[in-house]
Amino acid sequence: MEINIASVKAEVEAVFAEYETALVTNDVATLDRLFLDAPTTIRYGGGENLYGYDEIAAFRSARNDGNLQRRLERTVITTYGTAFATASTLFYRDTAPGKVGRQMQTWMKTEDGWKVVAAHVSVIAE
Question: Which of 36, 75, 100, 107 is deepest in the core (most CB within 10 A)?
């Protein structure tokens, strides 16, 4: 298995950037589209454990859309072959001084494009 095939990594970097833009602008339709619509999709968040696409979509639609801006650091995207990737990043919000957020996503390439199949978000003291 090849790790970090340049063309595959570029695809995942692009979809990761699309996800980040959708996240900070609360573009729920794009966020929903980028998660695999399956009962096996999981998202662990800062205050919620979501099992299945339906729970994730319900959370997104009810989320507060105020002040979602953040800055990313140490983003690492790694691809494995042509259809599997991980994305890991640290994030900082001005509204949470002294805290660092951590985000990890597992991406899978499907017939409909790249989709998040698992995600974890947490915040700790810096």
Answer: 107
* Pair of tokens at residue 72: 């990313």
CB 75 within 8 A of CB 104: no
Of 97, 101, 70, the closest CA to residue 88 belongs to 101
CA atoms within 13 A on the CB side of 77: 19
Task: Decide if 99 contacts 122 (C-beta within 8 A).
Answer: no
Q: Tell me which residue of 99, 79, 82 sits closest to 90, measured CA to CA.
A: 99
Q: Name residue, tokens 């096996």.
A: 40
Higher-confidence residue of 88 and 67: namely 88
pTM (global) more than 0.85: yes
